[in-house]
Amino acid sequence: MPYVNIQITREGATPEQKAELIKGATELLVRVLNKNPATTFVIIDEVDTDNWGVAGQSVTVLRWQEQFTSGVPAGIPA
Amino acid sequence: MPYVNIQITREGATPEQKAELIKGATELLVRVLNKNPATTFVIIDEVDTDNWGVAGQSVTVLRWQEQFTSGVPAGIPA
Amino acid sequence: MPYVNIQITREGATPEQKAELIKGATELLVRVLNKNPATTFVIIDEVDTDNWGVAGQSVTVLRWQEQFTSGVPAGIPA
Amino acid sequence: MPYVNIQITREGATPEQKAELIKGATELLVRVLNKNPATTFVIIDEVDTDNWGVAGQSVTVLRWQEQFTSGVPAGIPA
Amino acid sequence: MPYVNIQITREGATPEQKAELIKGATELLVRVLNKNPATTFVIIDEVDTDNWGVAGQSVTVLRWQEQFTSGVPAGIPA
Amino acid sequence: MPYVNIQITREGATPEQKAELIKGATELLVRVLNKNPATTFVIIDEVDTDNWGVAGQSVTVLRWQEQFTSGVPAGIPA
């Protein structure tokens, strides 16, 4: 009866993509640990980019910086 | 000073029901472990049915399936 | 299919007390929101007192202070 | 590569204040544990006052009570 | 930069199995949402069976009941 | 009454360092959002390196790789 919590930034994941995450995470627990899928929970949290920080900055700011460069700034994760 | 997090699907819990959950969880910690209610936190997360998966499917899909059957599909929790 | 996470300091809760928390939290969700107990999860986290802070101090320090006073210091939760 | 989750009531924190929380939490981990800021995550959850309970009541009710008193009720945290 | 938290009962998952969970969850996020694996975190929590409840009982009790029956009790998840 | 959860790998943080994290996180919430320190909780989770994954590998493996290179492998966070 595992519980899986997936946290991502809210940047347009579709219901189909979220369904794939649910299916994939459940299958992973079944395959690796032989868990019962009927009691495997997967909860997806979509977090506003103002509320997710990395490298000391909000993702809102990081995305804005990326627009003005040719890609992800060196050393800052995408 | 306990912290209780209750995660449920967002399916119409009313403010009165949420107040009952807060009151009940607080009283539980006071009764069982003699905790101080003034510093017992209860946080309720309501999760969209697209974002909650069980048995490898989103609750959105499960609820839709239930509408076309006489009840909860065998082996799938309500 | 709710998920309840109860976080308490690790200060000697017995298996019987933890079983009461599990039973009580499950009954609360059944009573208030008519949830199915068979798919209600309750997870208890016991946290070392060095790792739990309140009022800017660890609970280890707070408990030590309490030993040298007649009770909980004013304004600091028990 | 620490992960920091800050939960607050949704009561008007501005993007600038949230950016300060992200910056401050990241710097704290760098200063105390020499963590790499590029892989320090800070996630802020803003919780509706109906969904946050303390002292057995929702913060919605507590805030309403405060309006009719000269301050925070005795023994109830702000 | 997703964060994935997998909670399972502490019942003997090996380092190899946990490595598979980490690899599989990371690949899932890369495949479905094109996330950067270098900044995908996977945290596994192993929870004592006394501290995990389902159907109002601890998993410790459920496992003990299973030993005396031919399988999982009807309606109680494995 | 904020709640802060700090998750780090279990790699020898001392009680003094954890006390600094508690103090610093509490002060941050007081300074930025004028929160009441008496009801600010900080919970630190120390996670075994087998149970923390990044870049699809456990930190146990990453640390072992670092021992055989002059530093952090390119593109993998420290």
TrEMBL record, chains A, B, C, D, E, F:
Gene3D superfamilies attached here? Answer: Macrophage Migration Inhibitory Factor
Does the record's keyword annotation contain Isomerase?
yes
The chain positions of domain 4-oxalocrotonate tautomerase-like read 2-60
Q: Which InterPro entries match?
A: 4-OT, 4-OT-like_dom, Tautomerase/MIF_sf
User: EC?
Assistant: 5.3.2.-
Q: What GO molecular-function term can you cite, just one?
A: isomerase activity
Name the residues annotated as catalytic in the UniProt entry: P2 (proton acceptor)
**Pfam families named in the record:** Tautomerase
The UniProt keyword set, sorted, is:
Isomerase
Question: Which family does this protein fall into?
Answer: Belongs to the 4-oxalocrotonate tautomerase family.
- The protein, known as: Tautomerase
Source organism: Noviherbaspirillum saxi
